[in-house]
Amino acid sequence: MKNIVELPKQGYAVFVGDTHGDIQASRLVVRQYAKKGHCIVFLGDYVDRGEKSKENIDFLLSSQKQYPSIILLAGNHEMSMIEPVSPSNFWDSLDKNEAEEYSEIFKSFPLAASGNGFLAVHAGLPDLPILEDWDKIKPGDDNWERVLWADFRDKEGECLGSLCGRIKLGRDYFYRVMDSLKKNVLVRSHDPYAPERMFNNRCLTLFTSALYGRLRQIALVDLSKHIMSIDDFELITF
């Protein structure tokens, strides 16, 4: 499995933020968009926090078999066997064999989805100048950590330090990496404290779990368009 999935040049894609066991949200999105043939890009973190974590990931895995247009990106909560997470109620509920089985499945998940002018990941950006280099990322290395764990802050600077093991990446880092990759917009999830829009309308943070005490949100985009800003996406709340 390559670390980056290239999206089609035509049709539509739907981006879904962290669901964290919110199986109702996952079902609603799949029911609404899969039969239309839309690509559905889930941005990771399907398990933990919510009480229906196992049901949620099992539903998504079975739905992916039925609808190959569903893409499940890796989130940090899927990689707990490599880098422990908290809370970890999903992982704590499994026996050793079950944990190893899920871990092997999750290791096959790609890190990003790439489209016309935009990129989608779980959390942050690796310090790599071209997309082809992303296949060199290995589980547990520094760039892997940035993709799955990094937070963005709309402040001057590159690396702004870390908190609880999560590196904080600044405005200068975002612009440098995105411009090198020739991408205008980043779609991500991961950080419930991040504003919806950052970096002059170039970084969109989505959440699709009811656990965060907010309306669920997804983003719809026309894949035939060259995306220039977040305004090219339709943001949908439910």
From TrEMBL:
Residues 1-234 form the Serine/threonine specific protein phosphatases domain. It is an enzyme of class 3 (hydrolase). InterPro entries: Calcineurin-like_PHP, Metallo-depent_PP-like, PP1_catalytic_subunit, Ser/Thr-sp_prot-phosphatase. Keywords: Hydrolase. Its EC number is 3.1.3.16. It comes from the Bacteria. GO terms for molecular function: protein serine/threonine phosphatase activity. Gene3D superfamilies: 3.60.21.10. Pfam families: Metallophos (PF00149). This is Serine/threonine-protein phosphatase 2. It comes from candidate division TA06 bacterium ADurb.Bin131.
